[in-house]
Amino acid sequence: MAISTMLLIMIGLFLVLAVIGIPIGVAIGVAALAELLMQGTVPLLIAPQRMYAAVNSVTLMGIPFFMLAGTIMERSGITEKLINFANALVGSLKGGMCYVSVLTGMLMGGISGSAPADTSALSSIMVPSMEKCGYKRDFSAAIMASSGTLGIIIPPSMPMIVLGSITGISVGKLFLGGIIPGILFGISFMIVCFFIVTFRKLDKSVRTAFSLKALIGTLKGALLPMLAPIIIVGGILTGILTPTESAIAAVAYTLFLGVAVYRTIKLKDLPELFMSSIVGAANVMLIIAASSLFAWILQTNNFQQVVLRLFGSAINSQIMVMLIINLIFLIGGCFLEGTAMQIMFIPILFPIATVVGINPIAFGVTIICNIALGNLTPPVGICLFVASSSSGVTVDKIIHEIMPFIAISAVDILILIFFPQLITWIPGFIR
């Protein structure tokens, strides 16, 4: 079944708007409204109705709270404490500053659940520090962007909340399923850093010897922040908290640390923190709402039949189905924001995965890993632009340095496709 001309115009208009720099949520919404106007048979009232229904979800209410937790984490000094601990643990190694960045990204991912937030926090602190140690800013910015993406693989994860709201998959099990893949990605990034630093001889800093005393001292400072993911995930798995309530708990806990324990946040700072998170959350919700309208138009024009034709005889093989699904997200990640991709494609692809017997948790976490990769791929990779803005390095220079990290991420996704047990093993202990 061929795609209708108006559908092609809608998709083409969206791509043009996205490429010229129009915000993704606006680009999707304008393209969808243009299609409805050209079609002329659907009342325009359907647009606000579909958009409102998409965001009218208790589960999605957790997104602004996780974004607020990430903002509080950055402003409260928690990021510095995690960096100090990571530095005491691996900073004495050759290329240690690279490993510190990746390890800190993994630790921060257990609190904020937002790749852009983690990238911004890492870049603002680590890029100047790495430059003093002899690393080029473009290479440092590439590491920050890559490490920031770990925030949506390691629990908690905002994209996992969105995916759970679309499919009905347990958010708690998705969180658990992301632990081993998050560690796999982190170790892979460290391996890439090792080879780059070794062959290009980038590390010119004078390293201090490993100190157990320093490690214990920094661990004391980082211990309270590191309890956050235990509180968040543990609350969901025990049934004490829903995903939304766990996000509120994350805000309360990080705010308590910032205001009462570390005293780095004053009460007068709260309005600014809240407003910053509201603006960020509004952008995400606009993307979700506009994407829902866009996806509804695709579905009503039988776009799912076009997607099904891509699978052909591969529908009988779980591996082939997963490869095709991930290829769709890999290509889509170059042009679409992760949340938009989920809203558009998950309702079409998840039933196909279910029919062939693919484990829902393995399906979901692998998709999230692809979305993490999409944050690094041009022209829409958001972490590229965040790292560029925070470090003062142009995007094209970061792209040149980030290619090895993109390649190893693709390899990691292939490993997860062929060995889904890496995802399902930990969730398998929860009934």
How is the topology of this model organized?
Elements: H1 5-19, H2 24-39, H3 46-55, H4 62-75, H5 78-90, H6 96-109, H7 115-132, H8 137-148, H9 158-167, H10 171-177, H11 179-200, H12 212-226, H13 228-237, H14 243-261, H15 270-300, H16 303-311, H17 318-332, H18 338-355, H19 360-374, H20 382-391, H21 395-418, H22 421-424
Structure characterization notes:
- The protein has 431 residues and is mainly α.
- It has one domain.
- It has 22 helices and no strands.
- 51% of the residues are buried.
Brief summary of the model shown:
The protein is mainly alpha-helical and 431 residues long. The protein has one domain (5-429).
